[in-house]
Structure formats: structure tokens, C-alpha cells
Amino acid sequence: MMSKDRFILIGNYEPDRQESMQRFSQMLQDGLLEAGYVVELWKPTVWLGKWSKSTLQGLGKWLGYIDKWILFPLQLRWRVQKYKKRKVYFHICDHSNAPYLPHLPHYQTGITCHDILAIRGALGHADAYCPASKTGKIFQNWIGGHLKKASILAADSKQTLVHLEEYIGKAITTADRWRVIHVGFNGNFYPLSTREADQLLTTNVPDLTKPYLLHVGSSLPRKNRNMLVETLALLTNEWRGVVCFAGQPVDQPLADRIKELGIEDRIITVVKPSHQLLLALYRNCEAFVFPSFSEGFGWPVIEAQACGVPVISSSIQPIPEVSGDGALLADPHQPVSFADAFRQLHQPGKREELIQLGYQNCERFKVADMIDAYLNLYGLTRLTPAVCS
């Protein structure tokens, strides 16, 4: 049965290449469609941005701003008119687009807040690890000012909701339509067979012939990639494996530290692996290490768990909230803490125990459950049976 009720999702500007946000909006769209609702996904039209090679810097950045913050709000106001007499719910998929809220019906519009790290960084919170420029501070204050006024809000983690309480200066109660809704898996993550994983790695990463610690993510300072390098140096006399960074290339400061430690031959980088190659990297690693200083959620943690490998992660929230009992927690400021956690994996039965706990933890992040929670946020229910996910 298809409902006459309609969801209109507000997505991100394509040239900005915010891949995780694009995947989230697509996941929400697919899930709501499957639940029986009519769904549209609106994104800012690329008008001026198409004349620039990049909208992330220079003149292209400002052309993109005109598309996003001047032309698209005008489009929103015009397009909303045709839905005035229909039952329609609007949802902004990324909190960085909070300035669109005034252009949409207040009590019919919600937003997902994945984190407020950039806002906290602009306010001078060092623990956010997101320093802001002068213009960045103005921009984040603008975003935050609109976010405070949201009628309906879903936060990815309890930690994000705590940060929001600090930011708005009051406790969020059960009467508020602000809730924690954990995100589900944004792809199909599962344990490949050893044979398939071996074949993929042999073909695509032939240098990866030794046991390895894996990190998946960007080179942003808050991702704390340096921790894997320092941990490797501490384990040199007892473990001769390597570190594999999947995602962005190693930046210059980390490259300098690697050279200083004399371990250039023990670092492998896989830039933007395909999904299947990523599954292989997860499946064959000795351990997945996620030492972030700050996160809004931490998708790679549950991805690794779903692929059947042990996880060593930061002890700073929300990572323990997300990892559940399926990870060894370590202090992201102390390499020796991560080295000790790695040693624990070699205790009899510990590795397999952690893998099984990881599988159990992944049950909390089914996409169907996430969609049901979003529907409940709007006072709605599923109209069609959930497909296992």
C-alpha cells in the first residue's frame, strides 16, 4: 500500500562531494519508499557552480554559495507553494543545511544532526578538533542559530544530543521532538570468504603481503591517524606487520613522522577503495583501529564489525556508544594504550569473542529500524512490511 502522505528530503549540493551525506539521504529515501511513502529528494540546482572546476575553494566556492544560499532558498519557497494543501513532511538530511529551515513549514519540517563538531570548533572547544577561520566562525554561528530553532530533530548519537543541550543551554526532555536515532548501515557490509578477500587484495594491493592494522577514513587531524604509526613503532620488536590507511592519502606531517620513525616500508595506502575492495581490506586485517579524537557517529566501526574483524577504538564518546561491547577501547592520546589493546587480541579466545560481540552489536543498526524510528519521530508508522536489512 502506498500512502498519500509524502516526504520531501532536502539533500546536499552535488559539487561539494559530501559522499557520506549523499549516501545517508539516499538511504533515507530508499527506506521511506520501502515503508510505503511517496518520497522526493530535492537538492540545490547547480547553476553558477558548473562554471568552476571546484566549489570547495576560490571563486568556485563563492559561486557555489550563491547556488546554495541564495538561489536554492528561492526555489524552496516557490516549490513549497504547491504542497500547501497536501499532507507532506519535509526533512533536511544534513544539519549543515539548517539555514533552509526558515524556508520550509516549521511544524512539518525536521532535520538530522550528525554532529556539531564544526559549530563547537568555531566556539573554541578544543576537544572538537575542528578549528575555524574567521569566516568559518561566522558561517558556523549562522548554521547553529538556525539549528537551535528546529521543531523536529534526529541526532545520530547520545553524545551529539548532549552537545546540543550544551549549545542551546537547556535540557532536552521527552516532550521535545528531538531524539537520538542511530544511523543504519549505508551499504552491504558482510564477511567475505578468505579466498575472495585474498584474490581482491592480491590483484589490487599486491604490496599488502604481511599482517596489517587497518584504518578507514580521511586525513583530518581529528581522525588521529598518527596513533596507528606510533602504535606500530611500539610493537616493532614483537610484531612485524604493517599499517594500511584506506581512504585519503597520507598527509605531509604524518609522512614526516613515518620517515622519522624509519618505518616507510611498513605503511600501505589505498586511496578511495571500491566497496568490494574495502570489504576485502576489512576482512583480512589483523585488527581495525579507529582512534578518533572526535566523531558524530563512526560508521567504520560497525562496518568492520559486520565484516567479522576485531575492533580497537577510541574510548571517547560516541565511539563506545556505537561499538557496544564489540570493541577494545583505548585512550586516543596514549599509543601504549592501543599497543596493549592489540596484545589482548592474542589472548586465547579473545579475538573470536570480540568478533562475535561485534556481530551482535551490528543488530542495533538495521536500516529498517532506523526508518521506523524516523517515521515515529513524525508520528507515523510503516505501511508495508520491513525487508530484512
TrEMBL record:
Gene3D superfamilies: Glycogen Phosphorylase B (3.40.50.2000). Residues 207-357 form the Glycosyl transferase family domain. Pfam families: Glycos_transf_1. Keywords: Transferase. Signal peptide: none annotated. One of its GO terms (molecular function) is glycosyltransferase activity. The keyword Transferase applies. This is Glycosyltransferase. It comes from Spirosoma validum.
